[in-house]
Amino acid sequence: MRDQAKTKQQLIDELAELRRTIAEQEAHLARYQQTEQVRQEIENCLPVLIATAGYDGFYQQVNPAFERILGWSERESLSRPFMEFIHPDDRGAATAVFQHLLGGDLISHFVDRNLCKDGSYRWIRWTVIPVPNREIVYGIGEDVTAQKQAAEALQKAHDDLERRVLERTAELTRANRQLQAEVEQRRQTEERLEVFHRFSDAATQGFGMADEAGNIVFVNPFMAHLYGAQRPEDVIGNDLSKYYPPDYLPRREREILPALRRGESWQGEQELVFPDGQPHTTIHTIFPVLDENGDFYRTAVVITDITELRKAEAALRQSYEDLRKSEERYELAVRGSGAGIWDWDLLTGKVYFSPRWKQLFGYEEHEIGNSFDDWASLLHPDERGSIFALGDDFLASSDITATAEYRLRHRDGTYRWIVANMIAVRDDSGKAVRLVGSHGDITDRKLAEERVQQEHQALRRMVQANDRERRLITFELHDGVAQQIVGAKMLLGSLKNSKEPLSKNAAEGYREGMEALTRAATEIRRVMNWLRTPVLERFGVAEAIEDVAAQLRLLPDAPQIEYHQAVAFEHLEPMLENALFRIAQEAMSNAVRHSKSDKILVKLVQEGDRIVLEARDWGIGFDPEKVDQHCFGLEGIRERTRILGGELLITSSPGKGTLIRVTFRLNAATDDE
To answer: What residues are paired with 403 via a beta bridge?
Structure first.
């Protein structure tokens, strides 16, 4: 019994607990229903679209905003796939977004166009949250159609403004090109480019927009600067009357707005006082900005300050007149010089050859084109490689000018020597963008130089032959006359040893004969040494000059002779070495014989690639212009110097001594000469 009573009591307690639980659940349910009712009321009042959609592509639940905003009832919204409510152009992107949602991604701020019941479309920005375990998505959509329309209107105004700016810029560009074409006249110059840049800088423009009432709604930074403000924000919202003189507003009402309302643009000059306090002349180009309905609701303006442009136009006209006169003078100078002018634009590859340039080579105006190849085809084959290499090196360098000599083919098939002088026009980076130059015919000069060179070669050969002749004479004297004198002395000496005594007269004749033969032998040796010095051949010119000085010091009443040498060589090319020796020999001998100087100073000094010989005395001197043409010493010095291309200085005047200074390049003669 007790067990049964206990079980009954437990059942009563459990029943009571169950009743309490049911009461709590009913209370929770009541609160939930109340909350759900509030949520539903809030959701129904919200100005946004709220929807639940299944993975099957249909809406499961939509709020009343769908009917308020899109016009579709809840039944209509749930009756077909939600993709059919999306604009066809947006369905591809919407499908891709839905695939991401199926993968569990959160998509926010996705915008598409949704079909309204009246056939129009509204722009909706969606924030969508997927619930994969229930295979549904929650979406909240905000109607952003008004924002989109405002953006499109602004973009339209911007596009219209850009178009107007481009049109105005095109007009200015055409004007610039026309002015440039008038000024350039076949070739550009740095001065005209500078004028063009000044003109372009003066064309800086301001852009702005105002509503029909005259309130400013947009300005660019330059427009703000024109109005004396630091930032565009300082101007936006103000009335136009704040920045314009009193006569502008009546003009705006009378001329500008009526034209804009008719859909026309308006352009005219308007004077403004800029922040610098000075009045500036400007061009106002004003055009209407229309709303989505095609109604006029904004004015857009392009302001161009043409004050400096007007000044530049006056300066340009003056510059053009000055340039025209300068070009006339230049053309006359070019015609007088006989040179041909060319102008190579490295950017386009076009080359201008003047009529005179074509005449130099016998061509008519139409027979030569305007390209680099037209010139290159005329180059002599032997010089193409070297001239191309020279041109490449010049373009790669920073040099401004260059000169070259080469041959170009004449129309008659011959080649003419020309000298090309060119100037490079380089950009800011140093790259050559243009070459301008002239060609002058130097064929006659080249032929004359060849004749002079041939003459020099002939003279060199004559000097060499003269030196060989000296050596032959020396050999002849040594092997002929000298040997005969030695033989005569030996024969005459044998008479002294005769057994028979000589008579007084015979003895006197013997003595005089021996003395005469001795003097003859000495003179023969002196002449032989003068014609051919063994010291020169063996030890070189520096030692040979010292040997000459030593011989001259032995003469009766010889002056003091000082000789200094500072050279790094022992031997030079035979012809140069012989010329230096003969000039030194002649200069010292003349000074010893004729100067009456107490001292003679001789120097042989090497200065880089040059050798300098000086002979100085402090004697009676002479007038170099009055020297007898038969004075072979000075003439020989001049001829040897000229033949080897040296430099000769003879300084002398009566009573002030003489200086002879000769300079040769160390390679003035070659071994094969």
So the answer is: 421
DSSP result, 602-663: EEEEEETTEEEEEEEE-SS---GGG--TT-HHHHHHHHHHHHTT-EEEEEE-TTS-EEEEEE
SS3 405: strand
Largest CA distance in the chain: 210
For the chain (673 residues), the mean pLDDT of every run of 10, in chain order, is 63 78 71 57 70 89 89 89 91 87 74 92 89 86 86 85 82 76 61 41 66 85 80 86 82 85 85 73 85 82 78 71 60 57 85 81 83 86 88 87 88 87 87 84 76 62 55 51 58 59 64 66 58 71 87 86 90 83 87 89 92 93 69 73 85 88 77 43
Where do runs of H (alpha helix) occur along 338-383?
355-360, 372-376
Nearest to 439 by CA among 398, 494, 378: 378
Element (H, E) at 216: strand 216-219
Q: Is the dihedral of CA 475, 479, 482, 484 positive or negative?
A: negative
Spatial separation of the C-alpha atoms in residues 635 and 632, rounded to whole Å: 5
- Residue 591 contacts residue 639 (beta carbons within 8 Å): no
Could you tell me which residues are beta bridge partners of residue 122? 114
Please count the other Cβ atoms lying within 10 Å of the Cβ belonging to residue 189. Answer: 16
What distances in angstroms separate CA 75 from CA 62, 80, 221, one per listed residue?
9, 9, 55
The whole-angstrom separation of Cα 222 and Cα 317 is 29
- At 67 the three-state DSSP class reads helix
Q: Is the dihedral of CA 492, 493, 496, 497 positive or negative?
A: negative
pTM of the full structure:
0.32
**Both structure tokens of 535:** 């010291």
